[in-house]
Fold:
Amino acid sequence: MLKRGSKARSALFTLLMLLPGLAGFFGLFFYPMMVTVVRSFRPEGELVGWTGEHYVKFLSEPRARDVIVLTFVLSISATLCSILFSVVLCLVLRRKPRGHRFFRLTMLIPRVVPGLIGALGLLLLLGSRGWVNLFLIQFIPLVEEPIRFNYTIPGLILFYTWLYFPFTAVTTLSTLESLDPAIEEAADVAGANRWQVLRHVVIPLIMPGILAGSVLTFMAAFGAFSIPLIAGGNYRPLSVEIYKQINFTPARWSAASARAMIMAALQVAFLTFYMRILRRPSA
Amino acid sequence: MSEQMIELRNVTKRYGDLLANDNITLRIRRGELMTLLGPSGCGKTTALRCITGHNIPDEGEVWIDGQNVTEVPTHRRELGMVFQNFALFPHMTVFDNVGFPLMIRREDKAKRQERVMEALRMIRMEKYASHYPRQLSGGQQQRVGLARALVYQPKVLLLDEPLSNLDAKLREEMRFEIRDLIDRLGITAVYVTHDQAEALALSDRVAVMNAGRLEQLGTPDEIYDYPRSRFVADFIGLSDFIVGTISAVHAEKKTAVITANGLDISVPATPEMSPGREALLFIRPNNVDLLPASHAGGTNVFPGVVDKTTYLGDRNDYRIAVGKDLELRVQTDGKVRFKVGDNVQVHLPLPLCRVILE
Amino acid sequence: MTLLRQYLRAILSARKLLITTFLLCFGLMIYLPFLMIAFRSVGKGWFGRLWLPPELTLEWYRWAIEVTNIVDITKNTLIIAVLAVTMATLVGIPSGWAFGRRKIPGKELLMSMILLPRMIPPIAYALGVAQVFYRLHLINTHFGVALAHVAVCAPYAILVLSATFEGLDERVLEAASVCGANPVRTFFHVILPLILPGILSSMIFTFTTSYNEFTLTLMTYGKDTTTLPVRTYLAIGEGYWEVTSAMSIILVIPSIIVLFMIQRQVAPEKLVGGFKGV
Structure:
C-alpha cells in the first residue's frame, strides 16, 4: 500500500518537475505556432472568419515558385558544399596535424557569433574593395576588375556554407573519431590503398554522422533569415518573404502566417523525404 | 628461396622517450608458427606492426620472403592479419567481408564467389554468408576474420592476440582450429600473445620479449625447461628463485655446488661456472619433492617447516621455510597433505635445478 | 638515408604542404571577415584599392557610443540576457533533473520535442510569438524579449542539465548517506558541487544564445528594448559601414572570449546544438 503510494508520488513529482519545461514549450512554441496556423486562414486584418485566399494568392503567383525554388537551391547547395568541405576538413583534422586543436575551435566560430556579423564580415571581405578582390586583382593576372561575389547566388551559397557547415563538420568529426582504427588497418593489410580504404570502408561507416549533421545544416539554411536579409540583395528566400509581409503598413499578418506555414510544411516534407530515402541500416 | 620467411634486422622503434623495440633481430622460418610472448608493453605488438608496416622502424630493416620491405606500404606486403577485436567491416555482410581483399584485387565476380565460399567452408561458416558481423558471436566473428585474412592466400599470417576477447573455453577450441588451419595451409605465422599457456601450446618457437628487447628465442620446451634469464624463468610457469654463490665445481662429476641461505645445493655444472661467481638457481615448484621429516639425508635434501598451505583441488600449494630466511613455494599432487607447522624434508632433485648466470 | 626513404619522405611532405595550405585557407576564411570588420571599425579614409586604412581612428567607436547610444543598447542586451538565462535555468534545472534521473515514457520523443525550437528556424514561430506578445502587451518590454529568448535558450539549458544530472552517480549519494549525511547536507556538500559545473556551463550557453539572438528579438523589440544584434542590423541598413563595424566588434567580442575560455571543458557538439536521434 505504502509502496504504491510512493510510486505514484514519485511520478507526480517527476511530472511537476517537467512542468516548467513543458509549459515553456507549449507557451513559447506550440501555442504561437497554432496562432500562426489559425491566423494564416483568417482574412487580412480580421480576427474572425476563415479563408484560404492567402495560400491561393501566394501559390498562384509566378513569383512564389521562384521564391520556393530559390530557397531550396540555396539550402541544398549549401548543404552539399558543407558536406564536401566537412569531409575533407575532418579527414585532415583526425590525423591531428599541427594546431589541430585550434582548428577544431575555429570550426565552431560561425556558430558562436551572430549570423549577422558573419554575413557583414563576408560582405566586406568579398566586396569590391575587400581583401579577396584586392588579392585577385594584384596577384592573378587574368583578373582586372573586381569580381562580384556579393548579392549573387553563388555568393549567397558561400555565405550559407560559411555559417552552417559546422553542424555537418562536428557530427562528421565525432563519427570519424569513434571509428575503430583496427578496421582501417584490416582493410590496409587486406591490400586496399588509402583511397580504397576511404571509399569502401571509412566513408560508408561515417555516412550516418554526415547525414545527421547535414540535416541540421539543411534546416538551418532553409530557415536562414538574417543572412539573406542583409546579403540577399534582390534574392529573397522564403524567410525574408515572410518578414516582408510584416513590414507593410498595415502589417500583413495573415499573409505572413500563410507563408510561414508553407515554409514549415516544405521543411517537414523535405526532411521526411530525406530521412526515409537516405537512412541506411546503422552499422 | 630463402629459408627465412620473415626477418627483423636490428629493428629499433621509439615513441618519444619510450624505446618500444630495442635492436630486435628475429628470423622466422618458412612454415613455422612463431609466437611473440611477453607482458604488456614489452614491444611484441610494436614488432608485429613493423612486420605489417603499420610502424616504420626508426632503425633497422624488415625483410619478407627475401625482399626488403622496410619501406613498402602495408597494402602491398601481401600479408594476412587477424585482430584482437576482430575488426570486421560492420557495414558489410560476412560474404563481402571475406571477399573484400579479392574485390580490391579486382577478381571477377564468379571467381570471387567461388573463393569466398571455399574460404567460408574452411571455417564452417558458409551458412552465414549474408549475416552481418553484429549478428555473430565472438568466436564466429574471429573465424570470419581468419577467412578474410586467408582468402587471398598470403605468404604470412599475423595474429595479434586473436583469442583475448573470447571466453576461456572458446579460446581453447579456437587454439586448435587455428593451429590446424595453419598446418593445413602450410603458411608461415606470427602470433602475438601475453598468455604463456597459449604460446607453449601453439608454437613451433617462442620469442620471449621484455621491455623492448628479445629475451630468449627457443622451442616451447627450451623456454620452459631452460630459461636463460630470470625474467623468462619468472614469466613462464611458476618458479622458485634462490640467489647464491658458486662455492665449488666438480668437473668430473659434472656438478657444482651453490651456497645460498645457509644451504649447499648441488646443481648440474655448465662450462661457464667458476667458484666465487654469483648464480641464480631456480626450480619449478611442482618439481620439488616434499618428504616426511623422517626421510632425512641424501643429495639436496634439506629440513624445512611448513609456513602456509593452500588447497587447490588437484594440487596442494605450500610455502616452506627452509635454510636461513628462505621460503620456497612447493606444489604437490593431492595425495599426501601436510599442515602448517609440520617438519618436512625438502628435496630439490639435482637434474631439475637450473642455474642462470647473469 | 636510402633513396627510397628520401623519395617517400618527399611525397609525405608534399602531402603535408597540401594539408597546411588547406588548413591555412580554412583559417583565413573563418577569421578574415572579422579582421576586416575590425579594420573597418578603426579606419579613416579607407577608399579605393588600399589593403589597409591609411589612418587609424577611434572616432567610429565614439560615434557609436554617443550617437547611436550603444551604452544603453548594451545595457538592454545584458539585462535581457540575464533575464533569459535566469528563466531558462529555472526551467532547465527541474526538467534536466527529470530527464536525467527518472524513467520517462517516450523520453526520446519528448527530448526531440523540446529541442524543436532550436531545430526549426525561429522565423517560423517568431511570427506567432509576436502576435501572442502583442495581445499580452509584452512587446517592447525587457521581460517580453527575454521570454521570447527562453524559447531558444531553454532547450540548450535542458540538454546540458539533463546530461549533468544523468552523470550524478546514485552511488555517490548512497555513499554520502552511509557516511552519515542527511539529505540537506548531502545536497550542499555532494550534489551542489557536482552539478555546479553543469549549471555554469548551461548558463554560459544560454547567455551567448540570448546575447546573439536576432530573429526573435526583431519580432518582439521596441524603442526601449533594442539589443545589439538588432541595432547592428539597423545600422547595416543605414549604410555607414564604419560605425556598423564598430558596433559589430562590440557585439562579437564577448562570444569569442567565451568560446576560448570554455573550450577546454565542453564538447563541441553541445555548442552546435546537435542532438541524437535525427
